[in-house]
Amino acid sequence: ESPDYAVCGQSWQGLQLTDYALISLISYMSPTEQNDLPKLLSLLFPHMEVSVQAILGERQRRWLVLDVKPCKDGDRRIDQSSRSCKPVTVVAVSGTDVTRMTDFAENLRMWTEPVSIQILSTMFPTVRIWPRESTEMVIQAIHNILASLGLQDDQWHYREILDYVRQIPADREVVVTGHSLGGGIALVVGALTGRLAVAVQPPGIYHSLAKHQTQHGSAQSAHALHKRSVSLVFEGDWVQNFDGHGGLVQTMMCDQQERSLAVGCHLIEGAICHLLRHCGDQAQRFATCRHEYQPTSTAVALARSLWGLLRASFLESSYPAYLKGNLESVLYAGLAVSLAAVVRHGAPPMFAAAPRRGAVGVGRAAGGVSSCEAMATTLLECTAHAEERLRECSGRAPDEQNMLQLASDVPSVGKLLHTVEGDRPFVASWHVQLKLPAQSQRAAEVGEREKISAKWTEKEDELLDEGVALFKARCVKEAEQQKTEATISFEVLTREIEDFPKRVLTDSTYFVDSWGEGLSSGEPWFYATRGLNASWSPGAPILFAEVLQAMLPKFVDRVKDLGFTSTSHEAGTWKVTVNWGLTDESDKKKRRKD
């Protein structure tokens, strides 16, 4: 099936957009004992060598550094010296954490100027025709004035990331990636350092980049964003509209369009599903993907968290008790109004939770929402039937807010799948089922085909036994007529075998029409005859003569076991000739005796 988007099949430093989206998702996870990130990376990228070099920014913005070699050593199918196999450092930056107020503040600081210009353009439409240089000049002038007054605001969350990327040797390939706010930071750092940036669902930085270049004295040109940046945005995602976009931008459709106002088009889990569905997976790790989103649960969980944060702050403060009591009542009232607006008497159908089928997740996200009923769920299935055979959701609550369970052995599925489960607080719980490495997967396929071929082998034995019995009966009749040999057609015998595959004449050629009881298609015969590594095409016609030809040598061998004096097959025909008369030597002895 041909890809749906222009970027499908494209790669940057050996990684596809799907790979960068998966890495961006991992950047949200806390490095705990439960979150075995090295094990997770080995499951998500079995075709690459990926290792964690550093996990940084726990206090301000979580980000991690990965050392990636797109080609594994020893893979003879790939030219190890090619550019696509060159090792690369991937810096992944996490996006907005809704439990941290500093993240909301960072979003406001990062995009104050472009949003202000957009508001200004509604009052003065001519602002919309300003060239970028004019907007850049205004933004730079504002920050130059603030700097001269000692009011410059340049303590950004990305400062530590920027310093780290700048100290990496110039001959080392580096890619900065991230989702949402993390994607915006990746674009800024990439533009300031001249490194490649791959951003997933980022706010634009086309105009706001000017202030970052001014504050950090970047030597890069004003159009650095256009040269080495890739942005993936989704229709209906209002977060992307905070600023314009530059560089290579791919816009995709949203699978949650009816929930776009509730950030249904901004979830990275949905982006991964959409990429797999419409671009496929060149590494063939995943078969299908399902994503569900429940904004009502998100709003309730977020409100609970914010209320808990505010309540704890007031309980620890030194404000008078009456002040705390007054504010508490106001907060209660505001919370009630907010929840009423979101839930709207049980939530309208478009926000109602979709029914879950075959839930796999276990655990409980922050705010008391279990993964079984969590806000968004991604399921990457290896096979459709496997989901039904996996365990049901148990609702056990782990100690950590971010949960990851790795089960390399699922007995009911016969070691066919790896299962990975995790929660992103308030936004998503996700579940992936991954195919085993190619060698193990191939072994599983061969084992399954062997079982299928056994059906024909068993049936063929029964048909040959009946054929030999009919052959023997005809020889007895010939012997009763004082004959010492018989020539019988194997093809004629098969007509008398009731359950033998039936033929149909099409354009002067006989094809198999039906395979008899117990076989609905020719697949078992195909694997048993042509080998387990052959590729079966459902519905492909099979010559009846080919079935006879494959069985004839086995039939002749069984006839020989009957003890005839001689048994032979006439080449180019279905005829088998047997002789049970005396040999010349035996005949001479008999005559002398007489």
Tell me what the structure shows.
The protein has 594 residues and is α/β, with parallel strands linked by helices. Among the domains are: 17-252, Rossmann fold (3-Layer(aba) Sandwich), CATH 3.40.50; 452-593, no CATH class. 40% of the residues lie in helices and 18% in strands. It contains 18 helices and 19 strands. The strands form five sheets. Strands 1-2-3-4-5-6-7 form a seven-stranded mixed sheet, with helices on both faces. A five-stranded mixed sheet has the order 8-11-14-13-12. A three-stranded antiparallel sheet has the order 15-19-18. Strand 16 and strand 17 form a beta hairpin. Helix 11 (295-316) packs antiparallel against helix 12 (321-343) and helix 14 (438-480) packs across helix 16 (523-530). The protein is elongated. Residues 342-437 have low confidence and may be disordered.
Descriptors for this entry?
594 residues, alpha/beta, Rossmann fold, seven-stranded mixed sheet, five-stranded mixed sheet, Fungal lipase-like domain-containing protein, AB_hydrolase_fold
